[in-house]
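A reminder from the course coordinator: this example appears on the midterm review sheet, so study it carefully.

Given structure:
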């Protein structure tokens, strides 16, 4: 894998789990972090996910 790292893989996994479940605590458990703040750097929300959440809220 070129231009990849263990952290980029963890970020991808965290983003996919968050998009699938909407549960950041599940992401925390999968990443093995004892504190939720430790998981935050790995969690990104895509524009599509934000747009979908906004549309659901309306």
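Designed residues:
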């Amino acid at each position: 894998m070129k231009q990849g790292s263990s952290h980029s893989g963890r970020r991808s996994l965290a983003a996919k789990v968050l998009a699938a479940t909407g549960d950041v605590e599940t992401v925390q458990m999968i990443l093995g972090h004892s504190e939720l703040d430790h998981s935050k750097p790995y969690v990104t929300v895509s524009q599509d996910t934000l747009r979908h959440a906004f549309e659901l809220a309306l």
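The chain has a mean pLDDT of 86. The two ends are 41 Å apart (CA to CA).
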